[in-house]
Each structure stands twice: as structure tokens, then as C-alpha cells.
């Protein structure tokens, strides 16, 4: 039936997806641990950890949003390739609890907002599909109303987590405007402002549809450039830690 994937296909896909998640977690646990209680939270490992958290968010909702699961599995494969190809290292040993909390909140926030970015991109493409209805993938997506509702729910959760992540970074505020971190700090704050503004416009003005999805995608790209982009450049190209 149009609009739904066969139940058997979904079950098989989910089985392989969970096997992939378990394998991903096992491989990542070895990459993170470097002995003596220290962990390697370099750019490649941080990216893989974010993808793993994103998969854990997506898979329980896979039956309602099979579109996201397919995209997530592609990203998981990319993250494994990145982890195996680039061996950047940022060692944490005996870190203060507040720093550990900041790292955990940041990774979960980026994972949630990555789902938001993917969902926003699919919604934008879905609106284009409505004008030119071709392709198996878009004809089997959930209703737009359902996709948009989940988009804003995740956006609200992601905005709260990103706010908490920035708040837990306050004890290290002397580093916020350090030359190495200033672009990351500014772009993270700009992204948060964009997400909060979008949520306010949705709540008070009823903003939705393609314009809202485009704004969400822009906010996510700002965050992606500020965090992942700068970190990958510093660690992989400039060999900084």
C-alpha cells in the first residue's frame, strides 16, 4: 500500500540495524579506551559517538520514521570509515565531573540536532516531491504533518540539551574566546538562538512547512560547521589537540 513499507521489510531492516549498532558500539568502545582510565575523544571518535547516540534515538522510532533509519545507517557506515581512516587523538584522563558532564551533554545534543537536520532536509525534499511526485523513497514516507510534529519535538529537546551543554561550559569561560575555540563558541550560540527563535515562531506564529524546515536545516549547518567542521580541521589537518 502506498505510503507504507512492507512490515517484513521493516523488521529485516531493523534487525540488521540493531546488529550494526551493537557492532558499532563494540568497535567504538575499543577505540575510545587507551588504558589507565584515559579515553580518546578525538574528532573521529567524537563523530562516531555522536552517530551512535543518534542511532539510539532513531531506531526506537524506526517504524514511524523508516526514512530516518535508512539515512542514519548510511551515516553510521561513514562514521566507521572516518574512524578507521583518521586517527586523531584528544586524551582525557581524570577529567573533572563538570567537564565529563559537558562532553556527554554536548554529544547527546549534537546527536538530537543531527536528527533534526536530517529530518528537516527530508521535509524540504518531500515538499519538492509533492510538486513532482517521482521516486519510491518519497512515496513511502510518513505524512508530512507527522514528520513536522516530530521535527519540532526533537528541536525542543535538542535546544534544551544544547543550552545545558553551554551552561556546563561556563566554568571554562576563559577558553570561550580563546583563538582556538572562539569560532566554535560563537557558532554554537548562534545556532541555539536560531533554534529557539524558530521554536518561538512555530509556537506563537504557527510557522511550519518548507520555510520552517529550511530554517532548521540552516541552524543545524551552523552548528555542524561550528563544532564538527572546526574540530576536524584542527585535529586532522592542522594536527592540533
What kind of sheet is the major sheet?
2 strands, antiparallel
Number of strands: 2
Structural Rg: 19 Å
Helix-strand pattern: HEHHEHHHHH
Distance between the termini: 52 Å
Question: Could you give the order of strands across the largest sheet?
Answer: 1-2
GO molecular function, one term: heme binding
Domain Cytochrome c assembly protein: 24-237
Keywords: Membrane, Transmembrane, Transmembrane helix
GO cellular component, one term: plasma membrane
Give structural notes.
This protein has about 240 residues and is mainly α. The protein folds into two domains: about 5-95; about 100-130 and about 140-240. Helix content is about 75%, strand content about 0%. The chain contains eight helices and two strands. Strands 1-2 form a two-stranded antiparallel sheet. The longest helix has about 35 residues, at about 95-130. The termini are far apart.
Quick recap of the structure?
Residues 24-237 form the Cytochrome c assembly protein domain. With 241 residues, the protein is an all-alpha fold. The protein contains eight helices and two strands.
